[in-house]
Amino acid sequence: MNDPTVPAPAGSYRLKILSYNVHSCIGTDRKLDPARVAEVIAALEPDIIGLQELDIGRNRTGGVDQAHTIASLLRMEYHFHAALNVAEERYGDAVLTALPARMVKGAPLPSTGEQRGAVWVEIEVGQHCLQVFNTHLGLGGRDRLAQVATLLGPSWLGNPDCQGKPQILIGDFNAIPSTVTYKNIARRMTDVQLLPDRKPRATFPSRYPLFRIDHVFVSRDIVPIDAKVVSTPLTRLASDHLPLLVTVEVRSST
Length: 254
Known about the structure:
Blueprint: E1 13-21, H1 34-44, E2 48-56, H2 66-74, E3 77-86, E4 89-97, E5 101-109, E6 116-125, E7 128-136, H3 141-152, E8 167-172, H4 180-186, E9 190-191, E10 214-218, E11 222-229, H5 233-238, E12 244-250
Parallel strand pairs: 1-2, 7-8
Antiparallel strand pairs: 1-12, 2-4, 3-4, 5-6, 6-7, 8-10, 9-10, 11-12
């Protein structure tokens, strides 16, 4: 097994990536607490974060801009896309990082049920331009298949601007590994939890995890190093999903 404590070779970069569905910062104790979510994240020290189910200006969560609040507490920049817009209320996904980054695209995905979307951010890591995608797919199988086909197509990961560049796909896919949704992605990308001599762990529900529906996939030019689902008293309270933390190595092609 790759050792995450071993330094990356010269010209390569080791990164910690987090996927975390924060459930509008409402914990399993029904307490609304964005600072608690930020505390969970800060303890894990990720370089790149994909958050799902963030509220901005929603009455149900006190009108707070959760993306801004969490990013500020972590001293990071954030790039948010609202999958759902109702008047001044927004709900969606964000990528957070302290690395140099720019928003490439935020857009809806085909949905017949609850509207879903994705966000695409380019992040500079040394000489590499990482293409990072974060999404939250639908509950219906047909919706998920259409959404994944769109994500893998020419508007997103199949875009010419992505070709030859390392790609990371983060999210709550609402899809366990036996589903066609998962398999369609896995044919193109590597699931970072599938490490030698390591059993993949479920992420949902946080108190008694049964389903592995949160994933981090990487393109073939990124090397998975480590993966863990973080289950602590705090993470079991902070959200109904457990955070998935992975370590990968982006290697120089030269």
